[in-house]
Design brief:
Layout lengths: L2 H19 L10 H19 L3 H10 L9 H10 L11 H18 L7 H18 L4 E3 L4 E3 L2 H10 L4 H16 L7 H9 L1 H17 L8 H13 L3 H19 L4 H16 L3 H23 L4 H16 L3 H18 L5 H16 L3 H14 L7 H14 L3 H19 L4 H17 L28 H5 L8
Antiparallel strand pairs: 1-2
Length: about 500
């Protein structure tokens, strides 16, 4: 476009643009100079449409309700992948169905037939190209340091005025985009965890906008429980317990109303709320909620599946954890025994979940001075683990602890030597894990009074070492650099 053509277009559109300007929030009003900038943004937006770049316009609509920075391609990448399998748990309203259908069409249409099975390829190509179109018209910018996109808050406020829908429709689309990118299942892998943490500002923004819209137009729009679960998982990853709690309470109430008290999804929501109470240290509240859920699950499943039903075992595991933390071992141990037995059958003896519960049961035996049971269980666990398993050294150390409590010092030391050898094999003798193991072994020998500490200027301890085992402590790297005196018990 030539300068003369631009001037004609600018003058022609200026009046219409300034009419739209009146709809902006008071905080986003400009002076006369900035009104010219506002007119330019509007012209750039219309040029996108005239040049067939409707996808760029629609992407701007979605961005308008996100936080103004930290807009990553991972949001769209994960949404494009997850939307293929998105099935809402709670019933959707017409507005929510419309938003989900729109997103599905936008994301899958953008992929194109040649890339229909490669959503990541769309993000790497089409999405980046569309964002490039917006950047070319100065509507967004790329933050190279954080590998993310940003939009100026004033541009964002303006962008909301050009969206050809009611605010509740646009907000629901952006909210659905975020929720679907997160997914309803809380994946524990580090990448998913970091992704959820990075979405905190966006989640807070859409929630803030939703509450604002709800105040202005009562019953017009509110976050639905399907989305709220995803956002609560974000707050849990960020350890924002109160924010998570507020959402969890709303989720439980909404699902009771929509699905009924005894629906498995409602009970899972109650479990999530109880876990939030545990994270805040509110054990009485958590116990009450867990017991309520266990009672309902027993009514649902005990007659047909007995106490071994997966959901009943989940409730028992949660309660056993609370009981053990509070020192109520007589109540914790029977539940742990039920869970371990049930998991051995349903998950296998060497599954990570079964082993974790065995570990808790062995600790409970130890704390209740049932040392023979603790020893037998620790030996059983040790035999289940292959030498390549990174948890095996820890299992050796825990068995040694039980043997030490029983006064079987020689057997305990043998397992600690094996513990050291396993750490060295897995990590190398200078790795932090190996050094920690060396220190633990040295402290064990001090407890046994078989290795006096080195002398130092501040004490009169003997400087000689008594080696009751072939392993020479002076050859262990930790001892060569840490010679401080530790008094004998």
């Amino acid at each position: 476009m030539s300068i003369s053509d631009y001037r004609k277009s600018f003058l022609k559109k200026r009046q219409a643009t300034l009419e739209k300007y009146k709809t902006l929030p008071e905080s986003s009003r400009f002076d006369d100079y900035d009104k010219t900038v506002y007119t330019t943004w509007n012209m750039c937006y219309e040029l996108l449409g005239e040049r067939g770049k409707q996808q760029a316009q629609e992407l701007l609509w979605l961005i308008a309700f996100l936080h103004h920075d930290g807009i990553t391609k991972a949001i769209f990448q994960r949404a494009a992948k997850n939307i293929q399998f998105h099935v809402p748990v709670s019933p959707e309203t017409e507005l929510q169905k419309y938003a989900s259908a729109y997103l599905y069409k936008y994301l899958t249409q953008a992929v194109g037939p040649e890339d229909s099975e490669d959503e990541e390829n769309w993000v790497e190509n089409s999405f980046v190209e569309i964002m490039g179109d917006l950047a070319a018209y100065s509507l967004i910018e790329y933050d190279e340091k954080n590998t993310a996109y940003a939009i100026h808050v004033l541009v964002q406020d303006w962008a909301r005025t050009v969206i050809p829908h009611e605010p509740n429709i646009s907000l629901e689309r952006t909210t659905a985009l975020l929720a679907i990118s997160i997914g309803i299942k809380e994946d524990p892998d580090p990448d998913s965890h970091h992704f959820r943490v990075g979405l905190g500002s966006h989640v807070k923004r859409v929630l803030s906008d939703s509450y604002e819209l709800l105040e202005k137009r009562r019953r017009d729009w509110e976050v639905n429980p399907n989305h709220a679960v995803c956002f609560a998982n974000v707050f849990r990853s960020m350890k924002l317990w109160r924010e998570e709690e507020n959402l969890r309470i709303k989720i439980v109430e909404a699902r009771k109303k929509l699905l009924g008290l005894a629906h498995p999804t409602t009970l899972q929501s109650a479990d999530d709320l109880a876990q939030n109470y545990v994270n805040q240290g509110w054990y009485d509240r958590a116990e009450s909620l867990y017991n309520g859920v266990l009672g309902v699950r027993r009514v649902l499943y005990r007659e047909t599946h007995g106490e071994e039903h997966e959901d009943i075992l989940t409730s028992k595991r949660s309660l056993a954890t609370i009981y053990q933390y509070q020192g109520r071992l007589d109540e914790a141990i029977p539940f742990w025994e039920d869970v371990v037995q049930g998991y051995r059958v349903s998950k296998g003896g060497n599954s990570p979940e079964t082993l974790a519960c065995m570990d808790s049961l062995a600790d409970a035996y130890c704390l209740s001075t049932q040392l023979d049971k603790a020893e037998d269980l620790r030996k059983y666990m040790l035999n289940l683990l292959p030498d390549s398993n990174h948890d095996k050294p820890t299992c050796m150390k825990e068995l040694a602890k039980v043997l030490e409590l029983k006064g079987e010092w020689d057997a305990a030391e043998q397992h600690l030597v094996r513990h050291l050898e396993a750490l060295n094999m897995l990590w190398g003798n200078r790795h932090t894990n190996a050094v920690t193991g060396q220190q633990h072994f040295y402290e064990f020998r001090l407890r046994r009074k078989s290795v006096p500490p080195d002398s130092c200027d501040s004490c009169t301890c003997t400087s000689s070492y008594k080696h009751s085992h072939p392993v020479a402590l002076t050859h262990i790297p930790w001892f060569s650099s840490n010679r401080s005196c530790i008094p004998l018990p």
